[in-house]
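Obj.: predict assembly geometry.
Materials: sequence records (below).
Method: joint structure prediction, all chains together.
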Amino acid sequence: MNVLPRMHPDNLTDVDRRLIAAIQHGLPLVSHPYAELGRQCGLNEGEVINRLAALLADGTIKRLGVVVRHRELGYRANAMVVWDIDDARVSELGHCIGRFDFVTLCYRRPRRLPAWPYNLFCMIHGQDRDAVLERVRQIEQHCGLADVPHEVLFSRRRFKQRGAIYAPAPSGMSQ
Amino acid sequence: MDAIDRAIINALQDGFPICARPYAAAAEQLGITEDDLLQRLAALREQNTITRFGPLFHAERLGGALSLVAMRIPAQDFDRVAAQVNAHVEVAHNYERTHEFNMWFVLATETEQQLQDTLRAIEAETGYPVYNMPKLEEYYLNLRFAV
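Observations (raw structure tokens):
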């Protein structure tokens, strides 16, 4: 889900754009990775460290860390679980669901009536489908959702998983 | 993958030091050497357990448009429609799911207009309606996996 629109954002400085273009493919596995990144975008190590800290502080980068392949780590089942929740309570229940450590994402999205009545979406991963369903039951019990209409949409096939795409690099670094 | 590899993955999904020698700083927290950490990370990447050290961007803050889109495709048409949808570079990922709404993909474009144009193109090409469901509010986003 680490996806970026293909764009040339106007709200960043030139320096930040070059830095984001350089870092999107990952931090080099060397002793001084920020110096190495700096070489790729014309900054020194101190400048890279300062700009990255600023981008993290203002939330442009939400997190810098290792990106895992969840299937390879044994999370073989994933489900999008959707609920049809009274609009007045969706925020409260979204936060309740988001507190479970096996929930990776919880968003409110628009209903598409009459075909699609669900307005709260969350992703749950587990070792297998039974484990995911058990986790849905835990959420229902804890957040008082037993009588709320919901559906569990397991993934069957994944067709395409593109990493971040970001296009300002003059050297054609975009994927 | 041993206990130290698991500790590395659990610790470094949450964040990574920003200093001159971040691997050395992270290694110290984990009780191993910088060289050991770098070698283990390279091995985990070789095994495809991790993809990279990467940033998770705040897409909206960078501008651009992002949305989740659903389609209802009869089984006999599914592969044809999937190929048509996946051919668009704006489609970031696409999952077949166990539901009448069986195709779910994420669109990422530079502008909202491009997103709408892509949706109309997909409808015209496939002959099926798209259901655009952009995020209205975010309650939680972590994408962290304990091992």
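Conclusions so far: Residues 163-175 of chain A have pLDDT under 50 and may be disordered.
To do: check interface contacts against the pulldown list.
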